[in-house]
Predict the 3D structure of the following.
Amino acid sequence: MRIVLVGPPGAGKGTQAQFIASHLSVPKISTGDIFRDNVSRGTELGRRAQAYMARGDLVPDEVTIAMVTDRLGEDDAQNGFLLDGFPRNVPQAEKLSKLLASWHTKLDVVLELVVDDDEVVRRLSGRRTCRRCGRVWHVSFDPPTKPDVCDVCGGELFQRDDDSEDTIRHRLEVYQQQTSPLASFYADEGILLGIDATGPVEEVTERALASLRRFLR
Ligand SMILES: [Zn+2]
């Protein structure tokens, strides 16, 4: 099964990617992992990507696409994969379709984790990070015994700028701007499948797998 997973920050996409991929026995392929792998192996593409990242620039599509192409060409991806973090925009989606067509195959489904903005804000803005050991707590879902004190090391907890409501709302806006055209692109192809990603992690995984089975039947 060839799947692309999309979802806003705070939707638990990384975790779901892992669970769904392992249930379906396909590799989880994330652009973050591919970047790190190319950089650590010192490949030509890795060096090019690193040069952009070191300047704080976005890695251009052509470099990302070349890395993804290499990765999808590996043996373990021949019977399916779950892509996380790619494609990010319509031009990348078009490139991916062409690549797969040249291999006489195509995507089966694009799974979209749907969570409303207020829920994302509630999840992310409750995070507190330990100044000393870096452990991340959550005021509602994973609270420390004493407020604002780390159970592990006794360090002081604080809210990172990334976890402030303003930053989260801005990231959600950016996500919507990037993703709505991508979602329409795949909806037009008839392969967009949205699932409700609120609730416990295992329930979301079950819901996703059940929807995938129905969709592919
Ligand atoms: Zn700590």
About this structure: The chain has a mean pLDDT of 94. The CA atoms of residues 169 and 182 lie 20 Å apart. The longest strand covers residues 109-114.
